[in-house]
Amino acid sequence: MNKQYTYPFTAIVGQEQMKLALVLNIITPTLSGVLIRGEKGTAKSTAVRALADILPEIDVISGIPFNLAPDEESDVIRECFAVAGELLPETGTPLLVEKHKVKVVELPVGATEDRVVGTLDLEHALKAGEKRIEPGLLASAHRGILYVDEVNLLDDHVVDVLLDSAAMGVNTIEREGVSFAHPARFTLVGTMNPEEGELRPQLLDRFGLCVHIEGISDPEKRVEVMERRFAFEEDPETFCRAWADESARLVERIAMARKLYSSVSVSRENLMAIAQYCLEVGVDGHRGDIIILKTAKTLAAYDARATVEKQDIDQAAMLALPHRIRRQPLQDIVMDVGSMLKNKACDRVSG
């Protein structure tokens, strides 16, 4: 069987904000994902699928299909082994642990609720008195990336499932009074074309970051896009090999940033700047403040710095606030937060 090659993440021309937002979520999964808005043919799906080659490795308990970490609660591990029909190692015997790359799990727009959540074998439960389940996409996405292309076209019942799991970090499968719950903590990445409709506000708020991308207007860059894509399609193995070193450098930089993140410090002055940003643009609640803080710390770690600077906060606000700014009915998402703040400042001066 011929190997399937994925277009390298580092070979994507332009779209720097999109690539940065995705990398930041690899470094800090608690950023809660990214919504990528843009017209067709702007490498949105290509970029997300290309993440597979630059994602880090994690420890996963082998033998069960739930991507559980070795430090999950013992009751959770025991229950997951049971519903998978596998025997839990005897007390005192260490669990078998494998190294797996973080997964990118794609959720098709037309996926049924059972496909997303999983199904419970009610017949087996009634006959044997034991729970058996067929895990869904949320089980595969635990500790990974759940990718939804055309996320704005998802059925409402699937959106409700995603909202529940994103809020609780748990997926519950229920049927005829029999239920089972397993961890489902994932980074949600969605792509969409705004011309096809907007997202429900509840789901929009679950994305930590939001970027809007457009087709490249520089003719030289557009030619570069064509040349690289043609080279990849003609000989994907050679093309991927040519970008292997740059991909390896990015993987190393991400790994270093993941280690540094927890030690990055933020001054009270910069915390005040974050709060002021959110007040200026009219953000509801406090989620925006927290996401800006995490994003600013991640940007500093990505640049190998141990202290957050004002430039990190400015850049973080551009990524974290567009979809959180209070809007009038039918008003589009305000993507240029910087211009909005300048206009407000000018209004205060002129007033």
From TrEMBL:
Superkingdom of origin: Bacteria
Any one GO molecular-function label of the UniProt entry: ligase activity
InterPro entries for this protein: AAA+_ATPase, CHLI-like, ChlI/MoxR_AAA_lid, Mg_chelatse_chII-like_cat_dom, P-loop_NTPase
Keywords: ATP-binding, Ligase, Nucleotide-binding
Domain AAA+ ATPase: 30-217
Listed Pfam families: AAA_lid_2, Mg_chelatase
Record's keyword annotation contains S-adenosyl-L-methionine: no
Protein known as: Mg-protoporphyrin IX chelatase
Biological source species: Prosthecochloris aestuarii (strain DSM 271 / SK 413)
Lineage: Bacteria, Pseudomonadati, Chlorobiota, Chlorobiia, Chlorobiales
